[in-house]
Amino acid sequence: MSEEKQLLNLREKIDSIDADIQRLINERATCAQEVAAVKQAGGDTDALFYRPEREAQVLRRVMERNSGPLNSEEMARLFREIMSACLALEQPVKVAFLGPEGTFTQAAALKHFGHSAVSVPMSSIDEVFREVEAGAVNYGVVPVENSTEGVINHTLDNFMDSGLKICGEVELRIHHHLMVSETTRKDKISRIYSHAQSLAQCRKWLDSHYPNVERVAVNSNAEAARRIKSEWHSAAIAGDMAAELYELEKIAEKIEDQPDNSTRFLIIGTQEVPESGADKTSIMVAMRNQPGALHDLLEPFRTAGIDLTRVETRPSNTGAWNYVFFIDFMGHVDQPHIAEVMKQVGASASDLKILGSYPQAVL
Questions:
Q1: Dihedral sign, CA of 327, 329, 333, 339?
Q2: What's the domain range around 236?
Q3: What is the DSSP string of 198-230?
Q4: Residue 227: which CATH number?
Q5: Residue 159 maps to a domain
Q6: Which of 156, 235, 288, 331 stands 20 to 30 A from 60 (CA)?
Q7: How far is residue 363's CA from residue 142's CA, in Å, rounded to a whole number?
């Protein structure tokens, strides 16, 4: 068989497969509409259309049964977009994120909810919390820690006064690029804009390549990208979304000092999330100021064999030299052994606040 005939046969096979895929996606979308109709017929005005634990279970199964040649994460991303489009037929999800448009937080929101979600930029982490609390949006996305620069304290501080729950998490690999606009004179760059964390994450590269250039911290990488559109002597450090949004040229890619640089984001909302089968729990604990307080706090976790993934300390807003502990650990509060540990911690703490149990990041 000639090469031309082989290619023609393969293309006809691809066309047939595409038709099957399209038919099945529409069947799935019809099922999603029927789910919405059942929920609405029940008269429950507070019916939940987005179920974090259900989506996490679906994506895990997608990855488990994947046999290639597409890798499992790529396959799960494709299914995420299908799920996002189907959910939009039931009820579009409205998500606030730390803006402006083009930030890594928006990229995290789209990674978690898919591109059919309605993403709304906010100017501060405080505003993201307020929008969710007011019911203006369904969920919020806020950064909580970076693998290079550590925890984002402002996010933790907001939980002290908020009644919101953590409904999920997103882990995003962070790649920074040096970019310029069409008017930039590349040999005359005298100023580089970026967020303070991004400048810190690229410190060694900047010291080596642009040691004498002024580094200016701004509110976000997207703001840095926007600024250089009107400055001929400036460059910006930002990510792919900002480069596309502001039509900038990347003159140096992946300039972060740590190649595994990543940021963890939290999904905040008002709902408590049932078990998904692979969960994390976050709590906030205020301890009485006495000798051995930290030991007393952590001992029940050790005895029960619970894996602590993070322990952070923040000054309490109730008085000088009082501290609050933020703890992440593996498991869900509905599991009996976790519930027992929470009972023990609550007995020795001056205050215990369960911020939420939620599915571990899938992608």
A1: negative
A2: 177-256
A3: HHHHTHHHHHHH-TTSEEEEES-HHHHHHHGGG
A4: 3.40.190.10
A5: no
A6: 156
A7: 17
Helix (H, G, I), strand (E, B) or coil at 141: strand
Gap between the Cα atoms of 310 and 328, Å rounded: 5
Considering the domain architecture, whether residues 252 and 295 belong to the same structural domain is answered as no
Q: How far apart are CA 183 and CA 100, in angstroms?
A: 23
The total domain count for the chain is 2
Kindly state whether residue 142 falls inside one of the protein's structural domains: no
Do residues 250 and 288 both lie within one domain?
no
Same domain, 192 and 219: yes
pTM of the model: 0.89
Candidates 95, 132, 136, 137; CA nearest to 115 is 95
* Residues 71-105 pLDDT 10s: 999 999 999 999 999 999 888 899 999 988 999 99
CATH code of 293's domain: 3.30.70.260
Q: What's the Cα-to-Cα distance from 164 to each of 35, 53, 156, 220, 330, rounded to whole Å?
A: 27, 17, 12, 25, 20
Side-chain half-sphere CA neighbours of 227 within 13 A: 20
Domain contains 96 = no
**Residue 128 placed within a domain:** no
C-alpha closest to that of 155 among 312, 12, 38: 312
Residues 252 and 317 in one domain: no
pLDDT for 301: 96
Other beta carbons within 10 Å of 337: 11
pLDDT single digits (tens) 24-73: 999 999 998 898 888 777 665 566 778 999 999 999 999 999 998 999 99
Instruction: Give me the residues paired with residue 268 across strands.
Output: 140, 166
What's the half-sphere exposure (Cβ side, CA atoms, 13 Å) at 29? 13
Prior bond to 69 cis, omega within 30?
Answer: yes
